[in-house]
Specification:
Largest interface: B-D, 44 and 40 residues
Structural class of chain B: mainly alpha
Radius of gyration of chain B: 25 Å
Order of helices and strands of chain B: EHEHHHHHHHHHHHHH
Strand order of the largest sheet of chain B: 1-2
Number of strands of chain B: 2
Distance between the termini of chain B: 29 Å
Oligomer: heterotetramer
CATH class of one domain in chain B: Mainly Alpha
Structural class of chain A: alpha/beta
Helix content of chain A: 25-40%
Strand content of chain A: 15-25%
Number of strands of chain A: 12
Largest sheet of chain A: 8 strands, mixed
Radius of gyration of chain A: 21 Å
CATH superfamily of one domain in chain B: MetI-like
């Protein structure tokens, strides 16, 4: 396995909110390899966005990295403080694409200007050259008549087209890592596919490493090479997408997979996970998923499960993998998941 | 949803050179050139109606004032027949609707009437005209001071939100609002002139004597603008596009000025014309304290002295300014905020 | 001199002796120095020391003369020629003095010039006149008629022509100009002792600029129509009337050189000074002041359309004025104002009025140039461009709500008596708050000190030296009982009306009100200065040297100790029994309105309420002070009778007791109706007004009427106007003084002191002024 | 070994899962908690409460004097003028010997009374007119025109007229300020209502047929509560400031009714007299304290109650 491009080890991130301290990330560890597409999956509020934001130092004012390391290009980003340091990384090496294109662009400035601004910031190009580069970017992200579009305002663009502009902005400095924070959630399905294709195409062209943050397993299956499942601020399972989909080990991953609508059988109620994610203000003892885990063990309420290596590229943090734990089979619904997917892939 | 093409964009770049850079940096006028004249016509008609209503209401209100008020303390010395003569001369004896129609006939001829008590037989225009330059001079000086310092303070506060500069600025704003103006104006006038040796009153002969009044006038303005711009900038800072801007790697100051301030200015720009034009109204406190013969207390004097033609003229001027200010505010708003279409931008903000 | 050769004119002259018997601390408004010009320039009088030197020199001179005569006598036994000396100085005359049936006559030019008088020989009317200071003499060669300061006298020896020279009776001429004449038989010498006319103080330097702040803006400068006192004082500085007052309140000829009064006291003929220019704001001569100017101004004032506020004063005196004003006649010729020729103007009165001369200082008698009036039309006197000046100053700039500038009129006929070069008035609405501070820093020359900060100033060592009292004025303040109350029910008007008709009730309040405590709210340091027991103030008018308030009827009242707790309580007890029998309910509600715009009045209302209620007890009386806003105050309170007791005031328009009786006439004005309470006051008043012949009798009748008013507690006299404290670089007794009219506001004769006067200097200056005033009045024989 | 025993399926009740996720978040609870965190605001609130209680109780406390009573010295029967603050008179006396301590608290009572009355009247009418104007489309045209006219009529005319018709008193002052005071508030409320009128939850409730009245009282006003509270908190010192201004231009309360406006106006003349300046300092300090407290507390409360700040 070559050196990871970016490696997070045992990261703790805390926020002070309304007078109380909240632990958003509780000892997450993750490695990112060049050129791959990692998907981070989990319910909303599991800390997916907070984790990736900590990579570019965009944590909210009331949040701070409490402990742990984020090694990237020989630097420990966890120790970064101050705007100056982060700007060497932000937008230059790691770029982001946000969820809601409708509000991501400055409504009062022309689209062209917002792209040119970034081009002039990260490249030596100035003036007319920067404008041409911007128009070129617009073309690359698939916007028609880029010269006219250059002068228009965001409110004259559709949601999908705005997301393309945001992507163009992100690409303007040819970053190494592109973090897409639920890029397609706000778009309707047809546009969603176009955006995912665009990103895949750009990834191939610029040898990008892409991180997808999503709660939509359909997207994960479609684009991701590796998947990391997050729950309540920690990574409970991580591995190749094939391993996760077909050989998931963590009960939470089972639950996620079984809640896929595609697996539903006509006439039967769809599966959904009981309860809600834990209150991160409170101190969590043992496995955070325990209260909602039908297969929870007594120890899950006492001690936090360590990482169990299932395969060189696949590990999960659940006591079920401990040899002392009773043998539990994954739920029926996901057993023949492999067949469903093989059949699904065929019709692509 | 195909975006509606809005035609050629006319770039009014400050330097006039048509190369692309300036087109971005220049101010963009939405190209509804076609829509502008109808908009102006509609709005000015509305404005005219408003001013008409205002004057008529004020005209009638002034007629409710008691008759004796026109004499001040001469009432005793005058025999009833003399009082008759004076009222007749002022044209106050005929029924109100005749007085109203006379007023509008004169107005149509552009004659604002002559003052009856403030300076009898002197045309109102002649009373007001010499006062306007004084109020304007001080008003603009105070406006320039309060705008520049106010915005600087506001921006600085927004940047350092939560830290001590923000607290300092806010406490200044609170202080200016808390201590009654009548007290701190007089304090400044008496103490600072003592320290600095400047004369107590303003006089065109003494060059430096205009500084203190202008500065005093601007104190309130600084507090006002600082509070406004700070509030608008803090609102903008919470918006999503700022997240993207910072994610793009823009420096904090760059984000603050080219995005936050630029956008925060839109709601500001809409109120600017009215406050700018109101400088003509002058400040009652400052002009009476420093003997500046401006428009400051003129309206209040005219009302208490019941000089109807003068009140009428002043209310005409102030309401025209008020409505005209709103009107320009709308246009400025449309220019700075592309989302607003001129035709739709009707009604009071 | 009336040139109509009618039969023998029988004239008797009503003189008003402006006599003053000074009460210790009574002082007058700003004064100005006596006209000392006739004493010939080189003998400039430098204040009191020089006067003393003069007396000593006279004594020495007379001793020398006596010895010389004795010597002379022994030498020449024959009838040596008569010698004349004035103040010891012998007078040489081309034609020696002549004696005719006991009267010594001397050439008129010699005697006049010796006495320092100006001579006016008028061929047309064949009259010779000599005028000096307040008095003048007019003789008609070839007849025994003569006029002393306007009064006609029948001489026993008329002027004679000897060797081509007109000789005039020496004793008559000298005495009518105020000198004493002695015949020394031994030395056959006529000694004339001409005690100098007392000079006003001449402290302070000439030139310089007087600066001050004002907050009440003038609505107009039209002195012929406005009723505002500030307009009158401004006009008095830029326009001269026929006569003017000096610093002792003695009338001096101004635009009129001299005048004659017809025997029946109805026709006044004035001879104008010639060559007096009307000047525009930039000093350009527009025209000469002529008699027609007085006719034009009278016509303008009496034209109803011009709505003049002072027309009623003009037509009170001038015959036919009221008819013209009311429109019963349109022919102005019927009005008693005519220009006999270019420099002679004649007034004909409705009824004889000795005080008519004093009324001439009032604005409605000021001249105006007819042509200029027509040219400016409605815009006349709205600013400095539309008004002409002929007085001591020229109005250089009048910018309302900003500033007003006056500069010395260099072509003024009496420019030697105008010492301050420039007057600068700066408008500031906060004058009360800023002026004291600006005075301390020397930015202005005069500032009135509000009562509130007097304590602060007296405690401050520097400011204490700048503070002095301001002279009292002529306005009368008194507490009026309302005999026809029309108030809201909660003030029980009917109950009040019954109570106020009761004499004991009124007397209880009359003696129960502690006026000194009330006065402390206005002048905390010398409240007695302004307290007055009578309506007509002391020193207002006098006859035959006796002040009006010293006449027998009023003397006991002036000396009475008004505030007397015991007396007040006895009256209250009597009133209680009488009123309870009449069904009056207790406590009696007493509505007392006050003007919330004036801080000291608001305070005074509360002081009086607590003082009366603590004295009489709440069960007897419930004083209810009610505040009204300054704008429209009188319309809401006194005029509609919406009060029980209210502090009211009134100012005189001319120098006669009648000036203070208008508010008490039956139904005449909007004051309380005294007639409802007692008819005989009106009877006394009518009797007094009818007496126009004998001034002494007239004054006594007015005094009796006023005494009746006060003894029956129909009114409660309180104080005189003016007063308060100022910090000023003007001498309080240097400017012109008068008990009525705008004279007190004139800057003529005033000088700028280097340092402000303090209280001690003020009191000293006041006593000197009072003493000199007595001499001046006697010398002027007015 | 003991840990081994733990490797058995734990009985689990679904309710437990619900509870751990359940947050007892209450809007007002959180607002109060955040407000309490802001020590400055709490201090100001405390100050105001103490002040309000004190001025209500003050007349009945021992050794208190009547504000209008003029104190005479026993010997000279002269007023005890301008006595400096000391044991006898805690705040000293004014120019005619009235106790300044009593006058200031009576003046505060008057001014605060006027302030609260005017503020509540203006905000109440402002809300009613503002919401109607903002919400009901038909009224939009008419009320905008009325607003334009009312906004341009100088309020001084109306106040002078009222001063003529009614005698100067506290009620006149409240009426004078109330006649035109609500116009800016209604304009402000209208702008806020327009912003949230077309939010989804309003469209939804309109679709469900909820009557306009309910929408306004249930959906719109609660959302604006923070802004309304701020407006009310600032209106009170605003009313006091305009009372001081009215006294300055001569339309204020009569002098025998002590009010902060009167006291400050009387004190202004003494600014340059060190020995008597206390008559200006005390009322000015009281006015400033009241204004600052309302300002700080108002802002803090509106930030705490601002829906946007609630998680």
């Amino acid at each position: 396995m070559e050196q990871p491009l970016l490696s997070v080890s045992d990261l703790y991130i805390k926020f002070s909110l309304r007078g109380r301290v909240l632990t958003a990330i509780r000892g997450a560890s993750l490695d990112l390899y060049a050129g791959e597409t990692l998907a981070i999956v989990g319910e909303s509020g599991s800390g997916k966005t907070v984790l990736t934001k900590s990579f570019v130092g965009m944590l909210d004012a009331n949040g701070w990295v409490d402990a742990g390391f984020i090694r990237f290009a020989g630097q420990d980003l966890a120790k970064y403080r101050g705007d100056g340091q982060w700007r060497t990384i932000r937008g230059k090496k790691i770029a982001m694409v946000f969820q809601d294109p409708m509000t991501a662009l400055n409504p009062l400035r022309t689209v062209g200007l917002q792209i040119k601004e970034t081009v002039e910031l990260h490249t030596p190009l100035r003036g007319m050259a920067a404008k041409n580069r911007a128009i070129e970017l617009l073309a690359q992200v698939g916007i028609a008549q880029p010269e006219q579009r250059y002068h228009q305002y965001p409110h004259e663009f559709s949601g999908g087209m705005r997301q393309r502009v945001v992507i163009a902005i992100a690409m303007s400095c040819s970053p190494q890592i592109l973090i897409c924070d639920e890029p397609t959630t706000a778009l309707d399905v047809t546009i969603q596919a176009q955006i995912l294709d665009l990103i895949r195409q750009l990834q191939a062209e610029y040898n990008l490493t892409v991180i997808y943050i999503t709660h939509d397993l359909g997207v994960v299956a479609n684009v991701a090479s590796r998947v990391a499942v997050m729950y309540a601020g920690e990574i409970v399972e991580c591995g190749q997408s094939r391993e996760i989909f077909y050989n998931a080990q963590h009960p939470y991953t089972w639950a996620l997979l079984s809640s896929l609508p595609q697996l539903g059988i006509k006439g039967q109620p769809l599966f959904s996970i009981q309860g809600t994610p834990p209150n991160l203000f409170a101190e969590i003892k043992g496995d955070a998923y325990a209260p909602r885990n039908p297969y929870a063990l007594e120890i899950d309420f006492v001690k936090r499960p360590p990482c169990f290596q299932v395969s060189p590229t696949h590990y999960a943090r659940t006591w079920l993998l401990d040899e002392r734990a009773p043998r539990i089979d994954p739920p029926e619904a996901i057993k023949h998941l492999r067949a469903k997917f093989v059949e699904g892939a065929a019709c692509r | 949803m195909r975006p509606r093409r809005s035609g050629r964009v006319i770039a009014l770049s400050p330097s006039g050179r048509p190369d692309s850079n300036n087109r971005e940096r220049g101010i963009y006028i939405r190209s509804h050139i076609g829509a502008l004249p109808t908009y102006i016509l509609k709005k000015s008609l509305g404005a005219l109606i408003t001013v008409f209503f205002v004057i008529t209401v004020v005209f009638l209100l002034m007629r409710l004032m008691p008759i004796e008020g026109y004499f001040g303390d001469d009432f005793d010395r005058l025999a009833p027949v003399q009082r008759e003569a004076i009222l007749q001369k002022m044209g106050l004896l005929d029924p109100w609707y005749i007085q109203l129609s006379n007023f509008y006939q004169d107005l149509a001829r552009g004659d604002l009437g002559t003052s009856i008590i403030f300076r009898p037989n002197v045309p109102v225009a002649e009373i007001i005209a010499p006062k306007v330059p004084y109020s304007l001079k001080f008003g603009l000086a105070a406006m320039a001071l309060s705008l520049s310092l106010g915005l600087l303070l506001g921006i600085f506060q927004a940047r350092e939100k939560g830290k001590w500069p923000d607290a300092l600025g806010t406490s200044y704003v609170i202080f200016i609002n808390a201590v009654p103006a009548a007290v701190y104006f007089l304090f400044i006038q008496l103490y600072l002139t003592q320290l600095s040796g400047l004369p107590i009153l303003y006089s065109s002969a003494r060059p430096l004597s205009w500084i203190l009044p202008a500065v005093s006038m601007s104190l309130g303005g600084i507090a006002g603008y600082a509070m406004w711009i700070r509030r608008f900038m803090v609102d903008e800072l919470n918006k999503d596009y700022i997240k993207l801007a910072r994610a793009k790697g823009l420096s904090n100051t760059r984000v603050m000025f080219s995005h936050v301030l630029r956008n925060a200015f839109v709601p500001m720009v809409q109120h600017l014309p009215t406050t700018l034009l109101m400088t003509i109204a002058g400040s009652i406190f400052i002009e009476s304290l420093y003997s500046i013969p401006g428009m400051g207390g003129l309206l209040i004097d005219a009302i208490s002295r019941q000089d109807n033609p003068l009140v009428q003229a002043l209310v005409l001027i102030y309401s025209t300014i008020g409505v005209f200010g709103l009107f320009i505010g709308d246009i400025l708003m449309a220019i700075t905020d592309p989302r607003i279409k001129l035709e739709k931008a009707g009604g009071a903000r | 001199m009336s040139n109509r050769p009618e039969g023998t004119l029988r004239s008797y002259f009503v003189t008003i002796r402006l006599n003053i018997n000074c009460v210790k601390n009574n002082s007058c408004k700003q004064m100005f120095r006596g006209r000392n010009k006739p004493l010939s320039a080189e003998q400039k009088n430098q204040g009191r020391e020089s006067a003393m030197k003069k007396y000593i020199s006279i004594l020495v001179a007379t001793v020398v003369i006596v010895t010389a005569c004795l010597a002379g006598f022994s030498v020449q036994a024959t009838a040596a020629p008569i010698r004349v000396t004035i103040n010891g100085r012998p007078i040489t005359t081309e034609v020696p003095p002549v004696v005719q049936n006991g009267r010594t006559l001397v050439p008129f030019r010699a005697i006049f010039e010796a006495l320092g008088a100006e001579v006016d020989w008028n061929e047309r009317t064949n009259t010779v006149a000599g005028y000096r200071g307040p008095s003048f003499v007019l003789l008609e060669p070839g007849s025994t008629r003569a006029f002393i300061t306007g009064r006609e006298i029948r001489l026993d020896v008329g002027p004679l022509i000897v060797a081509g020279r007109t000789m005039v009776p020496l004793r008559f001429v000298a005495e009518s100009l105020g000198a004493q004449v002695e015949w020394v038989e031994a030395t056959r010498t006529v000694t004339i002792v001409d005690a100098p006319y007392p000079a006003a103080p001449t402290v302070g330097r000439t030139g310089g600029e007087f600066r001050s702040l004002y907050s009440g803006e003038l609505t107009t400068l039209n002195y012929l129509t406005s009723g505002t006192f500030a307009v009158h004082t401004l006009a008095a500085n830029i326009i001269d009337g026929l006569v003017e007052f000096d610093s002792f309140g003695v009338l001096h000829p101004s635009l009129a050189k001299h005048w004659t009064i017809s025997p029946d006291g109805l026709v006044y003929t004035f001879t104008l000074r010639q060559g007096v220019p009307w000047l525009t704001w930039d000093g350009r001569e527009y025209a000469e002041v002529v008699a027609q100017d007085f006719v034009d101004s009278a016509r303008y004032v009496l034209t109803r359309a011009n709505a003049s506020a002072t027309a009623n004063i003009l037509f009170r005196f001038v015959r036919g004025g009221e008819e013209f004003f009311n429109g019963t006649t349109t022919d102005f010729a019927t009005v008693g104002v005519r220009a006999l020729d270019r420099y002679t103007v004649q007034y004909t009165l409705r009824s004889p009025a000795s005080f008519f001369l004093s009324a001439l200082t009032y604005v409605c008698f000021f001249p105006v140039n007819g042509a200029f009036l027509a040219e400016t039309g409605a815009r006349f006197a709205t600013d400095h461009l539309t008004i002409l000046n002929n007085g001591a100053y020229i109005l250089r700039a009048h910018v309302p709500q900003n500033r007003r500038e006056l500069v010395k009129n260099t072509r003024y006929w009496d420019r030697d008596n105008v010492h301050i070069d420039r007057l600068f008035f700066q408008f500031n609405r906060e004058a009360a708050a800023l002026a004291p501070e600006m005075f301390v820093r020397g930015e202005i020359s005069s500032a009135s000190i509000p009562t509130a900060i007097i304590d602060g100033w007296r405690l401050d060592p520097v400011r204490r030296e700048l503070l002095r009292p301001a002279p009292v004025g002529a306005f009368a303040f008194w507490h009026a009982f309302n005999f026809s109350p029309r108030m809201a029910p909660q003030f029980e008007p009917e109950n009040w009306r019954r109570a106020v008709m009761n004499l004991n009730f009124r007397k209880a309040i009359f003696h129960g009100l502690d006026r000194v405590a009330a006065m402390l709210t206005f002048d905390p340091y010398d409240p007695l200065r302004q307290i007055s027991n009578t309506i007509t103030p002391v020193n207002f008018a006098s006859v035959d040297g006796i002040d009006y308030t010293n006449l027998p009827a009023l003397q006991p009242i002036v000396r009475m100790q008004v505030f007397d707790r015991a007396l007040a309580l006895t009256h209250r007890n009597r009133a209680m029994t009488e009123l309870r029998a009449a069904g009056v309910t207790f406590p009696i509600r007493v509505k007392m309105p006050f003007n919330t715009g004036s801080p000291d009045w608001t305070n005074r209302a509360q002081v009086i309420e607590q003082q009366l209620e603590s004295l009489f007890g709440r069960e007897f009386i419930d004083v209810m002070p009610v505040g009204y806003p300054p704008t429209g105050f009188l319309d809401a309170t006194r005029r509609p009778g919406n009060y029980a007791i209210q502090e009211v005031n009134w100012g005189p328009d001319f120098l006669d007791p009648e000036a203070y009786t208008q508010p008490f006439e039956a139904g005449h004005l909007t004051y309380s109706d005294i007639a409802l309470a007692s008819a005989n006051y009106q009877r006394l008043l009518n009797a007094a007004k009818a007496e126009v012949r004998n001034i002494r009798r007239r004054f006594e009748l007015f005094a009796e009427a006023e005494a009746y008013l006060i003894q029956n507690a129909l009114v409660m006299p309180y104080r005189v106007g003016g007063g308060g404290y100022v910090a000023s670089r003007l001498h309080p007794f240097q400017g012109s003084y008068a008990a009525a009219g705008p004279a007190v506001g004139k800057f003529k004769f005033q000088r700028l002191l280097d340092r402000a006067m303090n209280v001690e200097q003020f009191n000293e200056a006041q006593t000197i002024w009072a003493r000199d005033r007595v001499i001046a009045l006697r010398k002027a024989g007015q | 070994m003991e840990e081994q025993a733990l490797f058995v399926l734990a009985e689990r009740d679904v309710a437990d899962a619900e509870r751990s996720g359940y947050s007892d978040y209450s809007y007002w609870g959180s607002t109060i908690r955040v407000f309490m965190k802001n020590y400055a605001a709490v201090f100001c609130l405390g100050l105001l409460i103490v002040l309000l209680v004190f001025i209500m109780v003050q007349p009945y406390l021992p050794a208190q004097r009547d504000p209008n009573e003029i104190h005479l010295s026993q010997e000279t029967f002269r007023q005890l003028r301008n006595v400096r603050p000391g044991a006898e008179f805690w705040f000293g006396t004014n120019s005619i010997g009235q106790d300044l301590w009593a006058r200031i608290w009576s003046g505060t009572r008057t001014s605060l009374g006027i302030g609260i009355a005017v503020a509540s009247w203006n905000v109440l009418i402002g809300i009613i007119v503002g919401t109607l104007w903002g919400y009901v489309r038909k009224l939009e045209r008419v009320l905008t025109e009325v607003y334009n006219v009312l906004d341009n009529i100088p309020s001084t005319i109306i106040m002078t007229l009222i001063a003529y018709m009614l005698r100067p008193s506290i009620s006149t002052m409240v009426i004078a300020m109330g006649v035109t005071g609500w116009v800016p508030v209604s304009r402000f409320i209208r702008t806020q209502v327009i912003i949230i009128r077309d939010r989804e939850y309003n469209l939804a409730s309109r679709c469900l047929g909820t009557p306009t009245g309910r929408i306004i009282t249930r959906n719109i006003l609660p959302y604006l509560v923070s802004v309304i509270m701020l407006r009310f908190a600032l209106a009170i010192p605003g009313a006091i400031a305009s009372e001081v201004f009215l006294t300055y231009i001569g339309l204020g309360l009569p002098l025998h009714i002590p009010s902060l406006g009167n006291l400050i106006n009387e004190g202004r003349q003494l600014m340059m007299i060190p020995v008597m300046r206390y008559q200006l300092i005390f009322p000015s300090v009281v006015v400033s304290l009241i204004t600052i407290s309302f300002y700080v507390m108002g802002n803090a409360f509106s930030d705490a109650a601002d829906p946007r700040n609630h998680v």
